[in-house]
Each structure stands twice: as structure tokens, then as C-alpha cells.
Design goal:
homodimer; alpha/beta; FAD/NAD(P)-binding domain; Enolase-like, domain 1; 3 domains; 22 strands; 31% helix; 21% strand; flavin adenine dinucleotide binding (chains A, B); flavoprotein (chains A, B); nucleotide-binding (chains A, B); FAD/NAD-binding_dom (chains A, B); FAD/NAD-linked_Rdtase_dimer_sf (chains A, B)
């Protein structure tokens, strides 16, 4: 029994059903979840035209052609199509074809293995209940903010019109991606961040380059800010963001993208001895810790291991396999670290692509994280613009790459790229990090010339001291 | 002592110099070689605007902007810059900075370890002579062809003007890439191939898709053809290509791209017991076989292992390390298959990207090659257009992926992608194939959502029977 029909829940249900169990999915909103309607799909549909234009503008023979603004109505219509017009018919058909039962309504635990739907019908799980309810944006505690009805990520990805002036609070992925998209669609954008840079979970050079590029696109970036008060006099009217005495910004919309919280407040967790509202603690098989009987699982954002769609889907595959194995009485060994029932990649090789302009992509540990974790490391940096394939890809290519090498085992702990067209390059690093390929062997993985991938040769040469 | 100053020769000289030996490079043309002036660099400078336009034309908000023709003079000027205006000053400066001596002239062996330059000055190698003279295009034996002065790859990549009508003979990489480029720049292009499809060394579906796309771009493709005669009445005048009785094509230029031969005719190979004009046979350390004393090496196209710039550079790194090791008296073990002195990737993991529209990329063995080699395999195909990241990348995305799995070892023998934007995706496959990463472990290399790289998940799911 799966609570929550986003990509994680759908995949988990599919996995256990494919393994011969029956699966039921309980969802009170749209099947397909945040990703399909208010995150990955619509945001990337908004962003792809931005990067395509940016790249075309850096190529001779096209520069003039793409100098004008994007056709915003065309892009928004495209986004609507990629969000399936906020209807889940396609997803429901898929559930049906996959043999998964759908129960529409709000699922709530009512003691071990028991789930009530909308406070009425009670379902009992034979093998397991998996919580895949995801996360929601959190509004910080700022006077006037809630009353001003700011945009959250849902509004930012689904807005039918381009705001004239948009203020964004938060320099993480949502803030950066939405600043990129709405600026390219014509909005005047101000990006307010509390710290001193963007994308603070990646290597520092990533945020520097993205900030530089956003500034060139005309985004106003203000670091070290704190929103003290927000005022919106009339619904639909302008919103005033107060940063300090005599420091106010007036805009048409305000997007808050400062953090997320687990969707666990109203799940009945208290009926099984857990605390509502918190992140769900799980082990590497995605089974909730501290629940007798071992029938409760949590996959996706809700367990706070890695708040990314692809990682939720990965957890769903692992959890589905683990549930099915245990249902058949197959023991799962703790030692089976990279086997079919352990979400080991969550701890070693989480990839992320930020669809900014330029793209940012990273997997595994940053240098700072590796040091904090006590690894003896060497950091190798290289200017992506010095790679022939990159200079052919875009005039005046600016980018950077870093690999973090574990000196004790001579494997990569993490790799980061920032620059045009690096999104698809990341998976090479993900394979290297997840498979713990020795540096000596990577020397034989020859990058095709002249591609941006030749950065691998440069990084390895630099590491070997060549 | 290195004969031939292309990327392979330059890298080999650099490697031995970095290892503490002295290196001298003998070159009678431009330092930087075919790749810098008449192959990779100019061809990709011509092709990148084509793919950038093609991709922009499949994105909403830009379609109309890029509907017009490419600005050919701008593209050609860009190409000129990327070919360094056919001057090698930059390369010579690099040699200088790397501490490599340059001797301008035609180097020729004159017995063991001896090289004469332009028939005069004699140089004697202390440790080794490396032949890195590459390959040249071959004109087939067709009446009138040589007299008609057809284009070879050099002319096709360096032409200062766009021919009105261009006939290309040969459906390999050069033929396909040049058809793509010159058609986009405005030429009327006819592509003649002897067999039944394009890019015959890749999986068959690659050639099908590229042919379909070339046809849509307006290229006339004729398969199963044989050129029987060529006539050009006046220099610079039209050229007539005779395919059969009453089957003639008249064009302004004719590009012959049907094959290459080693540049070994005039190297004095006979003075050391080898046959001039043939490919140079070498072992996995790139040392020529059948030459007493073991002082002769051959790297790059000339040894026929893999006629690709990046593979030549790889061989240069391996050969340079082997020469330096032997100079120090370090034994090189046969068993050290993936070590620093064995070009093992030449036999297992050669990557290639064809910069056609769409791009084609492959590494390792095709299904047919794997079967011929006696492997017990399973072939997994997947429609790239069905991957969310691909459909976001380009409207109506068409593409395909194949992985060839060795069933005995559960590792990948080869991977092929064809579709927009797959060029940078290839290195993920190259790492997997070169490192022989078990399929079970690839399951933990999670592709970021929504990228085209998610094809990896689909292929692995299909293989596992999920």
C-alpha cells in the first residue's frame, strides 16, 4: 500500500507489482505528483528554450537570428502541454496498464498496516505500507508574508502570465531556475539570497559562474539579505518586500523558495509511534526505523535522504525490491552494500543537474563535504573553456570542472561541472563515482574528440601530474 | 624521435619529454596535423551551427527565429579561425613551451634508429623512433577521377565558398558530416554510397535515422551506386559523375570520401625490413612488430588500430609511457592489460561521435561485432524519444539507444546512441565499457531527471526484465 502517487509512489507500486505482489496507491491530488505538474516537467519545459537560445546565440551564423526575446506565449503553451494541462488521465491510464489499483482520497495511518481513506474506508496492507508523500515548500516566519500570498514553486512553474516584476527569495535550485526562466520570458527579476552566493550545496565556483551569467541576463542579485516584512495592500496588487529601513522592493509577484518540509503532518504517524511533521527516518532498504514489525517504508523526499525525483525513483526501485524480497522470506544482508536492496547511491553518488544557463551538474561529494567526512583527498580543477570541444560548442565558452579524488583508494568521491551543455556529461561522472572506478582505469576511458567530455582527459592528466 | 607532428606525434613527444627524455618532432607540413586544419577542428566548426540551429528549431519560442538559412560567410569565417587560418604558429609555440625540438622537413628512416631529413641531415634516436604520420584519403580507381581533381576531406573542410551543387561519394563519417554541413550552408548535395546505408560501421539503425534526417534536410541520397567514370571538361568547370548508362549527375564539386591509406610510402620502411605503403603493425605498447631491437613505434592512424584523433592521442600517451619505461629499464608485463603501458581500449572501448544531425555516438562492439567475436550477448534497444528528458530537449525527438551485454560476465560490450544531443552522453558508456562495470552496479548509477541520460535507466530496466 503506497501513500502518495508521485513518481516515487508510482515506481514503488510498479516494482512490487512486477515482483508479484498486489499494489494500491492512495492519492488525494493529481497522480504523477509534484514532478509532473509543478516541478521537473514544467520547469524544464520553461528552461529548455532558454538554454537553446543561449547556445544558439553563441554560434556563428545564428547569433543575429536569436537575438530577440523568446516567444513567451509559445513557451508557456509548451509548458502547459508538458504539465499535461494539470490533468492526470495519462498517469491513471499508466497505473491501470501496470495493474496498480488507485484509491482517490487522503490516506492516513490508523495503527500498524492500517490506512483509512478520507477518514472512512479502511485498507489493510498484507506486507507493507510505503509513505511517498514527498515534501512541500515552507514559508519562513516573516510578518505579512503568508497574507501576501506569495508564489511557491507551484505557482512559479504554472503561472499563465509573465509577471512584470518578480522578486525571488532563495538562491537554491528553484530560485536559480525560476530566475533564469522568468527573466528570459521578459520579467524584471530580483533574486534575494540570505548567504553570499547561489547554489550553496555545490562547489563554490558553480554559484559564482551562475551568478555572473544571471547578472549578464539582467537579473538583479542581492546577497546577504533578509526579508523583514512583506506587504500586499490589495489581492493581485503590487507586493512590497522590506529588507531594511528605507530598503524596500516593489514587485508584482514574490516567489519564496527557501526550503521544504516533509508532507507528514496529517498521515497518522502518531498511531504507529512516530512524530507527525518530521522527516521519516529509514535504513538503506528504505524501511522506517523504530516501527515494530518492519512493515513501514518511506521513499522519496519524505525521508530527507536526497530531495530529487530521480533519487526518489531509485529509492522506489530499491524499496520495491526489498519489500518483495521480504514478502518471499528472502533475507536481506547488511553487507550487500551495492546489491539490489540497498540504496547505497543515496550516500555516495547522488547526481543533480541544475538547468540554469549555464547548466550546473554535480555528483557525489564536494571537496568540503569530502573533507568533513574525513577523506584524504586531492582536488583537481580545470577550466572547461580550455577544452577544444567546449570552445567549438559555444563562442567564449565559460565553465569549470572539479574532481575530488580519494587518495587512499584512488577513486573519485565527487565531480562537478558548470558550463553550457554539461547536463548530459554528468552521467559519465555518476558511473565513475557509483562504480568506484579506479583512476588508473579511467585513464583508458577515452573521450571522443572534440567533445566537451575531453575535460576528463584534462582532469586525469592534471591529477597524474602530466 | 617522432615522425609526424599531428596530435598523436605531438602528444607522444610531450609524454616522453615529460618523462625525462628528449624529444624531437619531424614534420614537413603544418604542425598540428590533419585534425587541426583539415579534419576535426574545421569540420566541427562547420557542423556546430548546424546542430545548434536544428535544436533551436525544435524548441518553442525559437522555431520561427531560426527558420532561415545559416549565415554562411559567418560560419566559414568561424571555421577559418578554428583552423588557425592554416598557420601553425600556435602549435609551434606549444612545442616550444613543452620543450620539444622541431625539425621542419620530410623525415625518412635510414636503417635502425636513423632518420634523414629531406635527404640530408641525419638524426639518430637514442631510445626510439615513433612513426605518427597518419593517413591520407585514397581515390578509387575510376576513369577520369584523378584528372577531374575532386575534393578530398581537406578541400571539403577548407573550401572558401559554398558549391552550388556538391556530389559526395562515400557514406562514412566524412561523407555524412560534409553532406550535413554543406547542405545546411546552402549547397545542393547528392550523397552516393556503394552499400545500402550510411555509417556502416555503427549499428544499422544509426544509418537509417541519419539518412532520414539528411533526406528531410534536402540531401539526395542514392544507395547501391558505383561511380563508373568522372569527367571535368575545364578546370573549375562542372564535373559529370557517371553512374551508369544514361545515369549521370552534373555538379560543381565532387568529394571523394571512400577510404584512407597509411602515410608510409616514403618513410624508408624498407631500410628496416618493413614494406612501404602498408599499415604499420604494432603490439599493445604500440611497438612495431618484426623490427629487431624494439626501437620502432607506430601510433595513430598509421597502425590502423582506430583511425580517430582521440584514439591516436591515447596511443601516444601509452606509447610515450612505454618508451620512457623501457628507457629506464622498467619491464613491461604482458599481463598488465589495463595498465599504463597497454592500449587496451583500442580493442575494447573505442568511442566515436559523428557530428551529424542528429548526432551518432558509439563505443565498443556493435551487436554484429560482438557476435562475430563469439560473445554470448543480449541486445537491448530503447526508443530515445520515449525518455522524458529527450522530449523536453527537442520537440518530436527521434533517437534510439542500444546496449550489448556480455551474458557471461554481465558487463557491457558496446553502447550506441543516435539522436539530438547524445554526443556528450557517450562518455558515460565509455566509462562503463572501459571499466567493465557490472550491470548490477550500473543500477546504482542514477541518471539525473529529466535528462536524456535517463535512457540508461530504461535500458537497464529492459535488461533486467522489469
Amino acid at each position: 500500500m503506497v501513500l502518495g502517487g508521485g513518481p516515487t509512489g508510482e515506481n514503488l507500486a510498479d516494482r512490487v507489482h512486477a515482483a508479484g505482489l498486489s499494489a494500491v496507491l492512495v492519492e488525494h491530488e493529481l497522480v504523477g505528483g509534484e514532478c509532473s505538474y509543478w516541478a521537473c516537467m514544467p520547469s524544464k519545459a520553461l528552461l529548455r528554450p532558454v538554454t537553446a537560445r543561449s547556445e544558439a546565440s553563441r554560434v556563428p551564423g545564428l547569433k543575429d537570428a536569436v537575438a530577440g526575446p523568446l516567444d513567451a506565449p509559445a513557451v508557456l503553451a509548451h509548458r502547459d502541454a508538458f504539465a499535461s494541462y494539470w490533468k492526470d488521465d495519462g498517469q491513471v491510464r499508466w497505473l491501470d496498464s501496470a495493474g496498480i489499483d488507485l484509491v482517490r482520497g487522503r490516506g492516513r495511518l490508523a495503527g500498524p498496516r492500517r490506512v483509512t481513506v478520507d477518514g472512512g474506508r479502511t485498507l489493510i496492507a498484507r506486507h507493507a505500507v510505503a509513505v511517498c508523500t514527498g515534501s512541500r515548500p515552507v514559508l519562513p516566519d516573516v510578518p505579512g508574508l503568508a497574507e501576501a500570498k506569495p508564489w511557491t514553486s507551484r505557482d512559479a512553474t504554472s503561472s499563465k502570465t509573465v509577471p512584470g516584476r518578480l522578486v525571488i527569495v532563495g538562491g537554491g535550485v528553484v530560485g536559480v531556475e525560476m530566475a533564469t526562466a522568468w527573466r528570459a520570458l521578459g520579467a524584471s527579476v530580483t533574486l534575494l539570497v540570505r548567504g553570499d552566493g547561489l547554489l550553496p550545496r555545490m562547489e563554490p565556483f558553480v554559484g559564482h559562474l551562475v551568478a555572473e551569467s544571471l547578472a549578464e541576463a539582467g537579473v538583479f542579485l542581492r546577497t546577504g539579505t533578509e526579508v523583514r516584512e512583506v506587504r500586499r495592500e490589495a489581492p493581485g496588487g503590487p507586493v512590497t518586500v522590506v529588507l531594511g529601513p528605507e530598503d524596500e522592493i516593489v514587485a508584482d509577484e514574490l516567489l519564496i523558495a527557501t526550503g521544504r518540509a516533509p508532507r507528514t503532518e496529517d498521515l497518522g504517524l502518531e498511531t504507529v509511534g512516530l512524530t507527525p511533521g518530521g522527516w521519516l527516518e529509514v535504513d538503506d532498504t528504505l524501511r522506517a526505523t523504530g516501527v515494530p514489525g518492519g512493515w513501514l517504508y518511506g521513499a522519496g523526499d519524505v525521508n530527507h535522504r536526497a530531495l530529487l525525483t530521480h533519487q526518489g525513483k531509485y529509492q522506489a526501485r530499491i524499496a520495491g525490491a526489498a519489500i518483495a524480497a521480504r514478502a518471499r522470506g528472502v533475507p536481506i544482508l547488511e553487507s550487500d552494500r551495492w546489491g539490489a536492496h540497498s540504496a547505497s547511491a543515496d550516500r555516495h553518488a547522488v547526481p543533480q543537474v541544475v538547468f540554469s544557463d549555464p547548466e550546473a551538474a554535480a555528483v557525489g561529494l564536494s571537496a568540503a563535504e569530502a573533507e568533513r567526512a574525513g577523506h584524504r583527498i586531492r582536488v583537481v580543477d580545470y577550466d572547461l573553456g580550455a577544452v577544444a570541444g567546449a570552445s567549438l560548442y559555444a563562442d567564449g565558452y565559460r565553465g569549470r570542472a572539479r574532481m575530488v579524488v580519494d587518495l587512499d583508494r584512488e577513486v573519485l568521491l565527487g565531480v562537478t561541472f558548470v558550463g553550457p551543455g554539461v547536463g548530459e556529461l554528468l552521467h559519465s561522472a555518476t558511473v565513475a563515482v557509483a562504480a568506484e572506478v579506479p583512476v588508473e582505469r579511467l585513464w583508458h576511458a577515452v573521450p571522443a574528440y572534440p567533445t566537451i567530455s575531453e575535460i576528463w582527459l584534462r582532469l586525469l592528466e592534471a591529477y597524474r601530474g602530466d
